[in-house]
Design goal:
By secondary structure, the protein is α/β, with parallel strands linked by helices. It has one domain (about 5-195). Helix content is about 20%, strand content about 20%. The chain is globular and about 45 Å long. The structure holds zinc ion. The site of zinc ion has 6 residues, from α4.
Length: about 230
Amino acid sequence: MLSIVVTAITALVIAAAGSESPGSAVVETSSMVKATLQPLPTPRARAVVSAATKPSRTLLVPENGPGLFVKAKGSTQTVGRGNLVTYRVEVEETIPIGTAAFAAAVDRTLAHPRGWTARGRYAFRREPSAALRIVLATPGTTDELCAPLQTGGEVSCRNGNDVVINAKRWTLGARSYDDDLASYRLYVINHEVGHSLGLPHAACPLAGAKAPVMLQQTLGLQGCLTNPWPY
Ligand SMILES: [Zn+2]
């Protein structure tokens, strides 16, 4: 089922929320969160993070790119004991973030003991020929890879075998996470990979509760607290 929702971000973003079965496409807006949308950070509101332990928000990514990607080299060891999910990692050319660095962030997230492997249901391994592709893309290319879903240059999506992380969100984070860009990055990987595992969106169960990772936390928290972890 496809529903069309108009959301106010900086400009109007028209979003289509796809069905949630494996193989379908998922975009990070839905009628469910319409009432709780918060403005996403703008470059004007960008915080300068100087601590060495925090990712920098000062990096500028181009709005559009060539649609060509650099694939991360090599493979990782299998992590987890459950059903094996293999993935490859790519970064669009012209994005000033190294493919190895982005791949390492993805690898760390998926291998983290609090991640999707935690309950023994899933295992992960990065290998260059994997069907599941986790890419970091410019906003313009994100829109193209997510089409026919409309990401409006702002949000990420999962579309078929592609998990498309919008480099704008990767570098700026989301207002819901304030200055905790590191946690936002964990969240966005876990959330979009969760769609690849066949999981639909979830609502905040109770004000003040920990947000489900499948809540669209980029857009708002519905009264929940930020949480980047699946369990
Ligand atoms: Zn989603």
